Each structure stands twice: as C-alpha cells, then as structure tokens.
Amino acid sequence: MSLDVPTALLAKAEAGDVGDAEFVDCVRRSLPYAWQVVSDVAGRVAAPFADHAEPPPTEAERGQLLRALASDAIRGGLERHFGVKLAFQNCHRVAAFPLSEVGGDTYRRFVSPRNQLLNQSPELRDC
Fold it and tell me: Does residue 48 fall inside a structural domain?
C-alpha cells in the first residue's frame, strides 16, 4: 500500500475532491523518508538544481521513494506543494529544479537517456 489513508480522508475522497493540503499531509505522514528527501532537495533548490544521491538506508525507505516518485498524483502533489519540478534517476537520486529551469540545458541533461545510462552501476542494477 502506498499511503496510510485516515478513515475521514478516505470518506472525503469517496464523497468528492480532496484538496492538495490534505493529500500532501497524508503523503508526509505515510512516506516520511520520501518526504524528508524531497523536503531537503526542495529546501536547497537554487539554479540550476539541488539533488540527493545517497542510497536509502533500507529497502523500505527505497520503496517510499519509488512510490512517491512513480505516482503521478503523489509526485504532482509534492511538486505543487514545494513549487519545484522533481526528477528521479536510478532508484534513489532525486533532484529538484526551480520551475524556471525546466526545459533548460541542465534539466534536459539530467532527464536525458544519456545521463540515465551514465548514472548506472552494477551495485544499483537490482535496487
């Protein structure tokens, strides 16, 4: 399960739309390691970007990053909350770009197939 959704929030979602603030708070409580990493890079972001490249200490924490960044809804909520564009490589490298840098040379290089290939290593193959 990706998120630990409180009963009241689930009932609200069943009845209609849920606001970003409530959704992001659920993400924060459910995925604390992912929240910490994204908060860190978003808090340090400056042109052209800030990143976090350390592998998570446990597989459970790696799973949090994967769930947070693989979900369009979660990733989008985090991007709107922090006002950044997130990028993700391998199974743990998270970068935050100022919105003004999206589409620029550094951003395009970071998200390029070439850069993804260059950031591979045997120890990360099964992460």
Answer: yes
State which residues form the domain around 59.
32-124
Length of the chain: 127
In a domain, residue 23? The reply is: no
The structure tokens 């709107």 sit at 80
pTM equals: 0.88
Say if CB 9 and CB 22 are below 8 A apart: yes
| Inter-CA distances, 51 with 18, 44, 73, 97, 110, Å | 30, 8, 21, 9, 11
Would residue 115 count as lying in a domain? yes
CA distance 32 to 108: 29
pLDDT in tens, 15-39: 999 999 999 999 999 999 999 999 9
